[in-house]
Structure formats: C-alpha cells, structure tokens
Amino acid sequence: MADRYLLLSLTVPPKLEESIIDWLLGAESRCGFTSFPVNGHSGRPEGLTLAEQ
C-alpha cells in the first residue's frame, strides 16, 4: 500500500498555541510539524476591526 501524504494548516490564536502544540506532540505520528507566528492581510475591509483597518 502506498504511503498517503496530508498537509494540514491550522491557524489558531496565540492564547491556544501551547495547548495545540501539546496536543499535536501527544498524537501518535511518524511525521512532525512546524509552528510560527503569521499575519493575515486583505484588501477587503469587511470583517476587520477598527484596529485592523
């Protein structure tokens, strides 16, 4: 049986970062993961807070 590959991208608020990392580390897997802070950008103001605008 051929190996299957999966790419899962998660975007979580900083306050949940440690919990999600701990959860992923506890999962049985032969694969690893990376984590890093990101910034989202959009040219559409709908849904943005005043601070984000």
Describe the structure.
The chain is mostly helical and 53 residues long. The chain is 19% helix and 0% strand. The longest helix has 10 residues.
Question: SS-based structural class?
Answer: mainly alpha
Can you count the helices? 1
Report the order of strands and helices: H
Question: Biggest sheet: strands, sense, closure?
Answer: none
Radius of gyration: 16 Å
What gap, in angstroms, lies between the N and C termini? 50 Å
Helix % is: 10-25%
Low-confidence stretches: none
How many strands appear in the DSSP assignment? Answer: 0
Mean pLDDT: 85
Shape field: elongated
Strand content: under 5%
List keywords for this structure.
single chain, 53 residues, mainly alpha, 1 helix, 0% strand
Topology:
Layout: H1 17-26
Summarize the structure.
The chain has about 55 residues and is an all-alpha fold. The protein contains 1 helix and no strands. The model has no long low-confidence stretch (mean pLDDT about 85).
